[in-house]
Structure formats: C-alpha cells, structure tokens
Design brief:
By secondary structure, this protein is mainly alpha-helical. It has helices at 5-41, 47-72.
C-alpha cells in the first residue's frame, strides 16, 4: 500500500482553508448582529450591519449545502 502524500496534503490544505473561511464568515455574521443590537439600543438603525450579517449567514448555509451535495453525489 502506497500513500500519495501530495494528494493527502492537498486535501488537508483545502479542508483547512475552507474551515477557516467558514468560521470567519460566521464570526463576521455574529459581529454584524452585535453591531445592529448596539445601534438599536442607542436609538439608531444599522440596516447595513444586519443585512451584512444575513449575507454572511447565507454564505455559510450555501457552503454547508454545497458540502453536503458533494458528499451525497
């Protein structure tokens, strides 16, 4: 049995970068929601922060759905 170390390293690199990107997107979504909450408490509106947070969450959901599609097909 021979292990293709280059392919294993490639899979590791892609999965690591995808994980970091997904966590960063989710974190940006949480930051956007917290900015919206802070602006609401001060009497203002932060529609851009809320819509940006929703966009980040939608991208996270799309990435998870694509990963499930890749696994199933």
């Amino acid at each position: 049995m021979k292990i293709d170390w280059a392919a294993l390293g490639s899979v590791f690199g892609v999965s690591l970068s995808a994980t970091v990107a997904l966590v960063a997107l989710f974190s940006l979504g949480l930051v956007g929601l917290s900015k919206h909450e802070a602006a609401t408490e001060q009497g203002g509106t932060a529609a851009l922060a809320r819509s940006g947070a929703y966009a980040c969450f939608a991208l996270c959901a799309a990435a998870v759905a694509y990963a499930i599609y890749l696994i199933v097909s």
